[in-house]
Amino acid sequence: MSNSVISVISRFLEEYASSTPNKLKVIDAYLLYIMMTGALQFLYCLLVGTFPFNSFLSGFISCVGSFILAVCLRIQINPQNKGEFLSISPERAFADFLFAHTVLHLVVINFIG
Amino acid sequence: MYPFEGLFSLLVLSLVLETQALTPTHHLTTTDVARLQAVLSQPFTDLKSAYYSVVGLSKLGIFVADADETCRFINSNLDPSSVESLFYAAEASQALSGCEIPVSNDTRDLLLATVSEDSTASQIHQSVSALSALGLPLASQEVVSALKARISKEDNVLAIILALQTASRLSQQAELGEILEEIEDLAARLDDLGGVYLQFEEGLEATALFVSAAYSLSDHVDMEPPLKEDQVIQLVNSIFSKKSWDSLSEAFSVASAAASLSNNRFHVPVIVSAQGPAAVSHSHPFLQLQVTDVLCQPLSSASVLVESASAVASKSAILNQAPFTLRDGVFELNFMASQPASGYYQFSVAITGDSRFVANHVELKVKVSTRVAINNMDLSVVDKDQSIGPKTTRVEYPTKAKASFMADSHQNFAMTFQLVDETTGVELTPHQTFVRLHNQKTGQEVVFVAEPDSKNLYKFELDTAERKTEFDSISGTYALYLMVGDATLENPILWNVADVVLKFLDEEAPGTIQAKTLYVPKPEIQHLFREPEKKPPTVVSNAFTALVLSPFLLLLILWFKLGANISNFTLSPSTILFHIGHAAMLGLMYVYWTHLNMFQTLKYLAIIGSLTFLAGNRMLAQKAVKRLDGK
């Protein structure tokens, strides 16, 4: 049983390494970074306490928001999805990504206290 | 035959009308009438005030002292070219005996010319009154048609009142029917305030003038005015509720209204008031009533009758159809002759004698007072176990018992007595029968209530053991007082009956009575500021900060491994500008966190953001072009 799981995972990693374009891998690395940052913040909150609560929320929301925006960027940039995003060029997607981040960071900095 | 009719109609009325007919709540007393006369007797300064004074006083039945002097004053102030002046002079001179106003043909022509549709109702009123007062002929029909035209044009309350007043001066042959109907229309315009008052919103003067005009016109054509009895009483309330008058014209209007209400052919409101308090007793056995008209003049033709008098408490009838006798202008009835028990009685009084009387059915509450006497006051000290018979001491009012009584916890102190009416000997149960024990030394007093039993014998028992809390267990000599009082008693009683020495068990040291510590400074409240939350130690915080920042290193490593680079970095101005702008925005975020507020940040963000946007737009467009070319 665990054998098949391991084989599935290794197959997946192989496929990923080979067939994913570099740009997407860059974004994936970024996603991993964001996820780890968020997870570590959550760990701190569990271990040490929620004081100050607003700061914790702010940081966590920042991670979550960034993750979501990066996922959106990845979806829009992926050439395999080109059919669904005919009117949105990769540059446009990136510009949207930057704008949304500006708004997100405005809110986050306001809330972080 | 006359009283029989009156009685029968009253009987029917009292059966049919369960709701009480209105009686006046406000009326002029003799002092008010005197004040009204005084206001009208003030020395007059001009023709108008002379008119108000002279004619007003004549309505009250008083004639000016110096008739000749007044006549000369009127003649010297008369302006024959003014209709108003002629009106005042003519009316005033008519009220004075033997005063003549010289009338020329021009004057007469002026007055006659004023009677037309083009003059105001007030002018028509003045000229018609002047013509009739001076004895000059006038064409009544012309006046009627002019008045009708003015009423439809002016249609305000005062104009219609003046039209009514004018119509009462015209010949009885003229067609006054339509003007007579105006009385009913005006009556409909009166405001009913709480069912008590009826008045025009224009005020007291208008209401009073309406009453006087309506009755003078009704008397003139001999037709009863369409005012119901209740309305008449409400008008009386409105007009006579004000006892001091702002102006001469207001006083004049009240005097006219009073005169017309006391002397007209249809409605004469009757004012019934008790002389002094409505109370009788053995020393004052007569119930005296004043029955007058609105001007406080006694009604000569009236006969006053008590229809029924019943006790308020028991509702048993005492009197039925008992007449009052007239003596010196006051109606009186010897109520004590019917030997009523003390208490309150509801009287229903009827005034007959004239079919014009309005509000001639009055309800009165009469109090019968009496003197109380205390009989058989017996004091005794009874042993609780009844082994020793009680020693009873009788005390006579108002003396005090010679020996003082001793009672300790094994004994009860008892008191019995009877309260009777002094003259009749009937037992009484007054509202207040208290027994008060007063400690002379400490000033403490305790009050108990003495209750009557079924035979109206009052008993009071003091159980020393049971009542020790009321006394705070303070033993000593207490003075015993009996207090008797009631509204119907003429002689309330406070009687020091005896001295009682009380001995209580377990005498607690009587602490001085603690004055309530209400106004002493209270303990100070210390304000507790909110405790700051416990912060984790700095080591932990620093450790976790480093931990949270560590994935960034991982990211850089991964990117390096993936071969992310900036080899495609074109050094065009838009690119540089974009990157600078973006860096500035991130810097702004940091500055926002440390220094700024949202408004300032938005301001800067707008500036930097728009630059960055333009530059970025350019840069990305170039990139897109390059990508598409490269394809």
From TrEMBL, chain A:
<protein>
    <recommendedName>
        <fullName>Dolichyl-diphosphooligosaccharide--protein glycosyltransferase subunit DAD1</fullName>
    </recommendedName>
</protein>
<dbReference type="Pfam" id="PF02109">
    <property type="entry name" value="DAD"/>
</dbReference>
<feature type="transmembrane region" description="Helical">
    <location>
        <begin position="93"/>
        <end position="112"/>
    </location>
</feature>
<comment type="similarity">
    <text>Belongs to the DAD/OST2 family.</text>
</comment>
<keyword id="KW-0472">Membrane</keyword>
<keyword id="KW-1133">Transmembrane helix</keyword>
<dbReference type="GO" id="GO:0006487">
    <property type="term" value="P:protein N-linked glycosylation"/>
</dbReference>
<keyword id="KW-0256">Endoplasmic reticulum</keyword>
<feature type="transmembrane region" description="Helical">
    <location>
        <begin position="55"/>
        <end position="73"/>
    </location>
</feature>
<comment type="pathway">
    <text>Protein modification; protein glycosylation.</text>
</comment>
<comment type="function">
    <text>Subunit of the oligosaccharyl transferase (OST) complex that catalyzes the initial transfer of a defined glycan (Glc(3)Man(9)GlcNAc(2) in eukaryotes) from the lipid carrier dolichol-pyrophosphate to an asparagine residue within an Asn-X-Ser/Thr consensus motif in nascent polypeptide chains, the first step in protein N-glycosylation. N-glycosylation occurs cotranslationally and the complex associates with the Sec61 complex at the channel-forming translocon complex that mediates protein translocation across the endoplasmic reticulum (ER). All subunits are required for a maximal enzyme activity.</text>
</comment>
<dbReference type="GO" id="GO:0008250">
    <property type="term" value="C:oligosaccharyltransferase complex"/>
</dbReference>
<dbReference type="InterPro" id="IPR003038">
    <property type="entry name" value="DAD/Ost2"/>
</dbReference>
<feature type="transmembrane region" description="Helical">
    <location>
        <begin position="30"/>
        <end position="49"/>
    </location>
</feature>
<keyword id="KW-0812">Transmembrane</keyword>
<comment type="subunit">
    <text>Component of the oligosaccharyltransferase (OST) complex.</text>
</comment>
From TrEMBL, chain B:
<dbReference type="InterPro" id="IPR056790">
    <property type="entry name" value="Ribophorin_II_C"/>
</dbReference>
<dbReference type="GO" id="GO:0006487">
    <property type="term" value="P:protein N-linked glycosylation"/>
</dbReference>
<feature type="domain" description="Ribophorin II N-terminal">
    <location>
        <begin position="28"/>
        <end position="262"/>
    </location>
</feature>
<dbReference type="InterPro" id="IPR008814">
    <property type="entry name" value="Swp1"/>
</dbReference>
<comment type="subunit">
    <text>Component of the oligosaccharyltransferase (OST) complex. OST exists in two different complex forms which contain common core subunits RPN1, RPN2, OST48, OST4, DAD1 and TMEM258, either STT3A or STT3B as catalytic subunits, and form-specific accessory subunits. STT3A complex assembly occurs through the formation of 3 subcomplexes. Subcomplex 1 contains RPN1 and TMEM258, subcomplex 2 contains the STT3A-specific subunits STT3A, DC2/OSTC, and KCP2 as well as the core subunit OST4, and subcomplex 3 contains RPN2, DAD1, and OST48.</text>
</comment>
<comment type="pathway">
    <text>Protein modification; protein glycosylation.</text>
</comment>
<feature type="transmembrane region" description="Helical">
    <location>
        <begin position="576"/>
        <end position="595"/>
    </location>
</feature>
<dbReference type="Pfam" id="PF23861">
    <property type="entry name" value="Ribophorin_II_2nd"/>
</dbReference>
<dbReference type="GO" id="GO:0008250">
    <property type="term" value="C:oligosaccharyltransferase complex"/>
</dbReference>
<dbReference type="InterPro" id="IPR055374">
    <property type="entry name" value="Ribophorin_II_3rd"/>
</dbReference>
<feature type="transmembrane region" description="Helical">
    <location>
        <begin position="601"/>
        <end position="621"/>
    </location>
</feature>
<dbReference type="Pfam" id="PF23860">
    <property type="entry name" value="Ribophorin_II_3rd"/>
</dbReference>
<feature type="domain" description="Ribophorin II C-terminal">
    <location>
        <begin position="529"/>
        <end position="627"/>
    </location>
</feature>
<comment type="function">
    <text>Subunit of the oligosaccharyl transferase (OST) complex that catalyzes the initial transfer of a defined glycan (Glc(3)Man(9)GlcNAc(2) in eukaryotes) from the lipid carrier dolichol-pyrophosphate to an asparagine residue within an Asn-X-Ser/Thr consensus motif in nascent polypeptide chains, the first step in protein N-glycosylation. N-glycosylation occurs cotranslationally and the complex associates with the Sec61 complex at the channel-forming translocon complex that mediates protein translocation across the endoplasmic reticulum (ER). All subunits are required for a maximal enzyme activity.</text>
</comment>
<feature type="domain" description="Ribophorin II third">
    <location>
        <begin position="376"/>
        <end position="502"/>
    </location>
</feature>
<keyword id="KW-0256">Endoplasmic reticulum</keyword>
<dbReference type="Pfam" id="PF05817">
    <property type="entry name" value="Ribophorin_II"/>
</dbReference>
<dbReference type="Pfam" id="PF25147">
    <property type="entry name" value="Ribophorin_II_C"/>
</dbReference>
<keyword id="KW-0472">Membrane</keyword>
<feature type="signal peptide">
    <location>
        <begin position="1"/>
        <end position="21"/>
    </location>
</feature>
<dbReference type="InterPro" id="IPR055373">
    <property type="entry name" value="Ribophorin_II_N"/>
</dbReference>
<comment type="similarity">
    <text>Belongs to the SWP1 family.</text>
</comment>
